[in-house]
Task: structure prediction
Amino acid sequence: MKLKKKSKMLRKQWKKNKDKEYIVGPCKWCEKEIVNTDSFVTFADKTRACIKCYRNSGHMLPFWDKEHSK
Ligand SMILES: [Zn+2]
Result:
């Protein structure tokens, strides 16, 4: 008996609407305009930051960290 299980992938918000580019807002640190195709994070207070600044800020995304740690 084979059970087909669809694993739920972690949805990365910058991967949806791939064909539609729009500005989601300025980065809270470098104030660069972030487009939806960029890598960015959204905070609970609805501010946004690009991944570069986010990493520079000392915060770490758990999944990001996993992908890039050796
Ligand atoms: Zn930034």
User: Anything to note?
Assistant: Residues 23-57 form one domain.
